[in-house]
């Protein structure tokens, strides 16, 4: 424990991760727990954290939390910082919950247009600052709600959320397209065909019907239809962001999913794409925010 | 019964309607049954029709069927006719199931691009020909799978299917957006806001996240969110077809839904929109196809 300088907490909607973080941001040890912020009342956070990592919290170490612990109705509501937002902006806005003065929570970041809230992020902002992001890059965090985050001059300048993962699950479960549909990840060609369809043929609510038509035409088997559908939805993201395809892209998230996004990005003309480790990025981002707080 | 010239059958996926049709296409009487084509094996169609309207079928009257009875695996699979397709094309392609030589089934219509099947319709083609459609019009059949059908010179020249109704249900049931969501039809302003958002801010998989952001920002109440979501999805249809907003539009379907589409179309700059009776259009379409067959 003697090398530990910071206890980092990534409190997502459906999962909790606590990390012992060394000088510079390296992860020395970590623990996970299924008690995500989505299911916790404000007065439960402290005791859950004690249960999961109480033995790490006894030494007066600073604790820095990113993610949904700062959402409305959770540990302590943290207002969203407006874009553009950098490490120093996040650091200057951290705050502690009433029941845990040794804990600091990182605020989320928001896009405002003409003063109106347009989009929000909680957690991915910390990951972005843990990456070594080139200027004018795009950081893509695929998943339930995919985030496409643009950066410039070391700050987040804007972002867009796509409900891709959640839509995929809802379409598979709740529509005629899901009948006989398997899991994605078995047919790269069907995935690419879906991406290309979405790129050339918006909008996606019409392109979705092509899952059925391709099946009727004998060009798509039930076993491959999940890949095609996944390609359509991810392709719709790429199509919407294709104006940025000269920028470098960093993907953070589950590796299999990141590989699918990398394939879709290549079809959309993005040529500089790399995959980063999400957990390492979170730890390093927390470390950098902590350093800026301490300054 | 003496005025009856044709027994018309509209066999949808989830509903059956049998009509006694007079010279010219007027409906003299009709009966409905929940045994839609979606749940029937090929050898059940004849007996269901006998049960529902056997007393109407005893007099050697011709029987003409539109809709899903002609789909693969149903009464008799009828190939799709390619666009452009008119009444004479449909009439020349009707055919009888093996077990009912007195019955004729109307084929569906398909869009092909470079020889590849792109979109399909079964049932709405018959409705289109029952309308008195101006040239260069758009016939819109909202619903589970919304159809936007373009016409010219008395023929169907092309169409596009949007999975709007099915997506609305799947999103409400299967995503975070559906939590606390009520039914649509209570807040016209929220509906209009959704349409306008979709018109100015594609793609819809990103615009969908605005249901959540508008709620977070206090601009959308749970009670109004179903209308906003409905507006987003219908607005995505209008946005995709806005290049046709100089054309006259005829809406056919449930009246409350058609009114919502009419409001969305107005926001998209469509200025010549009327709502037609779907059942009457089907009967008249069947009559016109029957007349062309008899010629």
From TrEMBL, chains A, B:
InterPro entries: DGOK, DGOK_C, DGOK_N
Pfam families, per the entry: DGOK
Record has Mitochondrion as a keyword: no
Keyword Heme annotated: no
GO MF assignments: 2-dehydro-3-deoxygalactonokinase activity
Keyword annotations of the record: Kinase, Transferase
GO biological process: D-galactonate catabolic process
Protein name: 2-dehydro-3-deoxygalactonokinase
